């Protein structure tokens, strides 16, 4: 590092002469005294006080430091299997065998519940492989197989709340137990069904393949198990968790289950993340910590997922809420851009990714199946755990109550550190206190203006129709929003340095702003700990390590100033908090960036991403603010950042960065739903008052159809769909109740659809109950997927029905939504609703509608297929035929 060209004494004399009457001049002797005090944080000698770091070297050094840490994070993420682990040996998981299972399952094609591919072909393949595994099993073990076809109903508060009904869906259940039997079991769960138009390799065929191989390894082992292991291959998870509900509420083996492991996916390949555990039952986390060979787990992910920020759910919820069973939830999270698309193919999943998942699941299941804690788990159920992995090498875990003690001890250490400063003579205390609180205000102002700046840019980009420009080029978001946030923070602190702290030395100000950052993080630590959040450990790391670093380097800073040695030791001390922060930031963007491409038409993704980037910038810059005051100048840095931001902004505004990609190596498609529908509306006496047909089009991101219109001119704003105000959910056949997320729809006129097996719906009876409500009984038949909607009229309320637990659950907007599905064969669906009416009205008491969704089979539409072919290759149009019938009673 370079020293300033003039001494501290000359500089102070010059500045003092120029600004002798300034308000800060009277505080200069006090600041000089503080800067020379070791308890002031190592203030510095006169030489250090007047020196300044070279701007170029400081900026380059910090950039290289962060890049080096990012490289370490990337290296750890690419290391899927730790070298030296036994692979392919006798008694070990064999990823190549699991891949063989995976390729056979995905070769069947999309496996929608109710289709022959799901109910016959996949089930037959699973049973065939299980039979082969049973033939090779060790005589120590007993294998039992059951194919369950449950029927049931439940309500769930996912997506605003709705009710689910299923009939004759499929579960393939395998129980591996000691020859003498077992009273307790651990459950492993996967699902072999997929969404329409996707082979579902990652979601969730690979998990079922892993479970088949784990079953093979365990069954051939010469080691006896203490407890049973139940493998549930469920066939209706994509139908909003129906098959797991059928198992846990109806299967006789469900009573044996004491814990479970759920294997899921929110991406394709990479590492499988433990993102939910419990509830409570810390012994399960300890089991994972003790057994997993390639750990990847975070309580931060758990608390983020359970907050509801991520619009997704897994079978974990069903086992937790309806079975009162604790468990571990794992999911692949990498490359979520192709999740639930045609690109989710077996060849995109690395063999090492399968190997690590298999090693971990096998080890944890074996640990639990031989553990005494499984049989008496109720003794160990109290309390939560703080847990996190360190670059995938090992997991640190401890009880949350211990974490709270540690956190408050760290807070006390900060109080003592600052308290010693405040115990100096009174004139020093007043100056330091004033500068500290002014520094706190300046820091908060810099953060606020930084956030406002990036939000203004994001809103402008959204208004001009250039949202998601970073979706296919993530560096664009960093160059646009990241540089703007950093530049604004530096700008505000440079103004403070030049016009407010005119007579203070750089080292003194570095001390003040270090203490400010320390206090801010300490405040977060206190608040998070007080709220009982386990993720408060991050704040503890961001307080403890910087504080220790400062105490260690303050002597060198006092004696030699802010030289190269000080900088080196300072950055070395920040290594752990910054490394872990970048590790978490990667996970945040890996998960949230793809989600923003399918989060609906109402949430501006640029605003969300800009806010996240601004928050990350605030965190990462917090302990580097002192370098602004230690450096001679910041002009070049601000100019460079502003130039990068401006150039990127102009390129984005000109449309240079297209959001989507059809690159086979790394596709990032735009998701579109196309439903060729025929709608029929009936009035109170049953007469048809309206009938129309068309292709109902929904884009699943904020850009709507703006990028599609140049390729398909008939899809434009002149065919925007109008909401039928008197119909539930605007009179359209929503497959799931996501109407509040997607309000921009298009309705392209098209000929009527004529399904080979049309849906039938009728009112069977209408009767008055002894408690003066009206009971309406219905029956319906139709395809494997249907949706039922209800809206009560003024003066009427839906008091109860034969679905779920009997209490109707409203969706967002006040309407009622029922998701129905059945397996290959199903009987007529009979159900009733009760309506409480204050007084009869001429417009009736309730409006109901039923939509039939034809995902598989021969019920296709040539017009729909022709339209789908027009879509450019960077889109993923998922298309199916629907009918919609509305009635008033």
Automatic annotation (TrEMBL):
<feature type="transmembrane region" description="Helical">
    <location>
        <begin position="473"/>
        <end position="496"/>
    </location>
</feature>
<dbReference type="InterPro" id="IPR007484">
    <property type="entry name" value="Peptidase_M28"/>
</dbReference>
<keyword id="KW-0862">Zinc</keyword>
<feature type="domain" description="Peptidase M28">
    <location>
        <begin position="171"/>
        <end position="364"/>
    </location>
</feature>
<keyword id="KW-0378">Hydrolase</keyword>
<feature type="domain" description="Endoplasmic reticulum metallopeptidase 1-like C-terminal">
    <location>
        <begin position="667"/>
        <end position="887"/>
    </location>
</feature>
<feature type="region of interest" description="Disordered">
    <location>
        <begin position="1"/>
        <end position="48"/>
    </location>
</feature>
<feature type="transmembrane region" description="Helical">
    <location>
        <begin position="609"/>
        <end position="631"/>
    </location>
</feature>
<keyword id="KW-0325">Glycoprotein</keyword>
<feature type="transmembrane region" description="Helical">
    <location>
        <begin position="405"/>
        <end position="423"/>
    </location>
</feature>
<feature type="transmembrane region" description="Helical">
    <location>
        <begin position="508"/>
        <end position="530"/>
    </location>
</feature>
<dbReference type="Pfam" id="PF22248">
    <property type="entry name" value="ERMP1_C"/>
</dbReference>
<keyword id="KW-0472">Membrane</keyword>
<dbReference type="InterPro" id="IPR053973">
    <property type="entry name" value="ERMP1-like_C"/>
</dbReference>
<keyword id="KW-1133">Transmembrane helix</keyword>
<keyword id="KW-0479">Metal-binding</keyword>
<protein>
    <recommendedName>
        <fullName>Endoplasmic reticulum metallopeptidase 1</fullName>
    </recommendedName>
</protein>
<feature type="compositionally biased region" description="Gly residues">
    <location>
        <begin position="39"/>
        <end position="48"/>
    </location>
</feature>
<feature type="transmembrane region" description="Helical">
    <location>
        <begin position="565"/>
        <end position="589"/>
    </location>
</feature>
<feature type="transmembrane region" description="Helical">
    <location>
        <begin position="536"/>
        <end position="553"/>
    </location>
</feature>
<dbReference type="GO" id="GO:0005789">
    <property type="term" value="C:endoplasmic reticulum membrane"/>
</dbReference>
<comment type="similarity">
    <text>Belongs to the peptidase M28 family.</text>
</comment>
<dbReference type="GO" id="GO:0008235">
    <property type="term" value="F:metalloexopeptidase activity"/>
</dbReference>
<dbReference type="InterPro" id="IPR045175">
    <property type="entry name" value="M28_fam"/>
</dbReference>
<keyword id="KW-0645">Protease</keyword>
<dbReference type="InterPro" id="IPR053974">
    <property type="entry name" value="ERMP1_1-A_TM"/>
</dbReference>
<feature type="domain" description="Endoplasmic reticulum metallopeptidase 1/1-A TM">
    <location>
        <begin position="432"/>
        <end position="653"/>
    </location>
</feature>
<feature type="transmembrane region" description="Helical">
    <location>
        <begin position="638"/>
        <end position="660"/>
    </location>
</feature>
<dbReference type="Pfam" id="PF22249">
    <property type="entry name" value="ERMP1-TM"/>
</dbReference>
<dbReference type="GO" id="GO:0006508">
    <property type="term" value="P:proteolysis"/>
</dbReference>
<dbReference type="GO" id="GO:0046872">
    <property type="term" value="F:metal ion binding"/>
</dbReference>
<keyword id="KW-0482">Metalloprotease</keyword>
<dbReference type="InterPro" id="IPR048024">
    <property type="entry name" value="Fxna-like_M28_dom"/>
</dbReference>
<keyword id="KW-0256">Endoplasmic reticulum</keyword>
<keyword id="KW-0812">Transmembrane</keyword>
<feature type="transmembrane region" description="Helical">
    <location>
        <begin position="435"/>
        <end position="461"/>
    </location>
</feature>
<comment type="function">
    <text>Within the ovary, required for the organization of somatic cells and oocytes into discrete follicular structures.</text>
</comment>
<dbReference type="Pfam" id="PF04389">
    <property type="entry name" value="Peptidase_M28"/>
</dbReference>
């Amino acid at each position: 590092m370079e020293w300033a060209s003039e001494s501290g004494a000359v500089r102070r004399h010059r500045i003092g002469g120029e600004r002798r009457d300034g308000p800060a001049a009277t505080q200069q002797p006090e600041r000089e005294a503080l800067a020379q005090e070791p308890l002031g944080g190592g203030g510095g000698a006169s030489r250090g006080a007047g020196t300044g770091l070279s701007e170029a070297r400081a900026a380059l050094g910090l950039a290289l430091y962060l890049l080096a840490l990012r490289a370490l994070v990337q290296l750890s993420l690419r290391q899927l299997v730790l070298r030296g682990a036994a692979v392919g040996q006798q008694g070990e998981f064999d990823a190549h065998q699991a891949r063989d299972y995976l390729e056979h399952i995905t070769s069947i094609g999309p496996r929608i519940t109710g289709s022959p591919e799901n109910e016959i072909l996949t089930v037959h393949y699973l049973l065939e492989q299980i039979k082969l595994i049973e033939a090779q099993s060790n005589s120590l073990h007993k294998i039992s197989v059951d194919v369950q076809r449950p029927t049931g109903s439940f309500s769930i508060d996912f997506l605003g709340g709705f009710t689910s009904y299923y009939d004759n869906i499929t579960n393939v259940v395998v129980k591996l137990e000691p020859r003498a039997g077992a009273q307790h079991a651990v459950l492993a769960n996967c699902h072999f069904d997929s969404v329409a138009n996707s082979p579902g390799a990652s979601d969730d065929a690979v998990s079922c393949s892993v479970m088949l191989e784990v079953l093979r390894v365990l069954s051939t082992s010469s080691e006896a198990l203490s407890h049973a292991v139940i493998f549930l291959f469920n066939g209706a998870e994509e139908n909003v968790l129906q098959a797991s509900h059928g198992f846990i509420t109806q299967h006789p083996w469900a009573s044996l289950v004491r814990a479970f492991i759920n294997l899921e996916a929110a991406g394709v390949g990479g590492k499988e993340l433990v993102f939910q555990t419990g509830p409570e039952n810390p012994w399960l986390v300890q089991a994972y910590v003790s057994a997993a060979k390639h750990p990847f787990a975070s309580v931060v992910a758990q608390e983020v997922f359970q907050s509801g920020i991520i619009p997704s759910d897994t079978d974990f919820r069903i086992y937790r809420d309806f079975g009162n069973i604790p468990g571990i939830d794992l999911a692949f999270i990498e490359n979520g851009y192709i999740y639930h698309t045609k690109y989710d193919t077996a060849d995109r999943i690395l063999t090492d990714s399968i190997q690590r998942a298999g090693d971990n699941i096998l080890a944890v299941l074996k640990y639990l199946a031989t553990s005494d804690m499984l049989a008496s788990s109720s003794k160990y159920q109290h309390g939560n755990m703080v847990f996190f992995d360190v670059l995938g090498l090992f997991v640190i875990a401890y009880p949350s109550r211990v974490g709270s003690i540690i956190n408050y001890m760290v807070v006390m250490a900060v109080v003592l550190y600052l308290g010693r400063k405040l115990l100096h003579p009174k004139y020093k205390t007043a100056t330091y206190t004033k500068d500290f609180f002014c520094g706190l205000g300046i820091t908060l102002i810099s953060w606020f203006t930084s956030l406002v700046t990036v939000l203004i840019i994001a809103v402008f980009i959204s208004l001009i129709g250039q949202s998601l420009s970073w979706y296919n080029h993530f560096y664009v978001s960093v160059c646009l929003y990241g540089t703007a946030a950093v530049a604004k923070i530096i700008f505000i602190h440079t103004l403070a340095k030049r016009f407010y702290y005119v007579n203070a030395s750089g080292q003194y100000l570095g001390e003040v702003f270090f203490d400010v950052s320390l206090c801010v993080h300490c405040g977060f630590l206190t608040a998070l700990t007080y709220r009982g959040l386990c993720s408060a450990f991050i704040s503890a790391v961001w307080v403890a390590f910087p504080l220790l670093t400062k105490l260690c380097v303050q002597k060198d800073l006092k004696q030699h100033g802010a030289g190269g040695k000080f900088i080196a030791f300072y950055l070395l001390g920040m290594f752990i908090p910054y490394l872990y922060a970048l590790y978490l930031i990667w996970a945040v963007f890996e998960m949230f960036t793809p989600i923003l491409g399918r989060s609906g038409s109402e949430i501006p993704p640029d605003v969300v991403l800009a806010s996240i980037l601004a928050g990350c910038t605030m965190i990462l810059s917090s302990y580097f603010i002192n370098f602004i005051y230690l450096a001679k100048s910041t002009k070049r840095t601000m100019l460079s950042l502003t130039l990068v931001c401006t150039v990127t902004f102009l390129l984005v505004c000109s449309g240079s960065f297209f959001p989507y990609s059809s690159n086979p190596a790394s596709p990032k498609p735009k998701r579109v739903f196309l439903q060729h529908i025929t709608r029929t509306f009936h009035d109170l006496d049953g007469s048809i008052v309206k009938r129309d047909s068309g292709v109902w089009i929904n884009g699943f991101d904020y850009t709507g159809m703006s990028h599609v219109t140049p390729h398909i001119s008939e899809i434009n704003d002149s065919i925007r769909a109008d909401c039928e105000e008197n119909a539930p959910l605007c009179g359209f056949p929503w497959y799931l109740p996501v109407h509040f997320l997607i309000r921009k729809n298009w309705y392209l006129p098209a000929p009527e659809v004529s399904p080979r097996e049309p849906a039938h719906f009728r009112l069977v009876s209408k009767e008055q109950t002894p408690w003066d409500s009206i009971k309406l009984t219905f029956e319906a038949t139709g395809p494997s997927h249907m949706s039922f909607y209800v809206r009560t009229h003024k003066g009427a309320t839906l008091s109860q029905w034969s679905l779920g637990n009997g209490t109707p659950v409203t969706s967002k907007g006040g309407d009622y939504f029922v998701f129905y599905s059945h397996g290959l064969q199903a009987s007529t669906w009979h159900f009733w609703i009760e309506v409480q009416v204050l007084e009869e009205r001429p417009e009736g008491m309730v409006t109901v509608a039923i939509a039939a969704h034809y995902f598989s089979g021969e019920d296709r539409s040539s017009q729909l297929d022709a339209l789908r072919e027009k879509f450019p290759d960077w889109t993923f149009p998922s298309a199916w035929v629907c009918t919609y019938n509305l009635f008033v009673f």
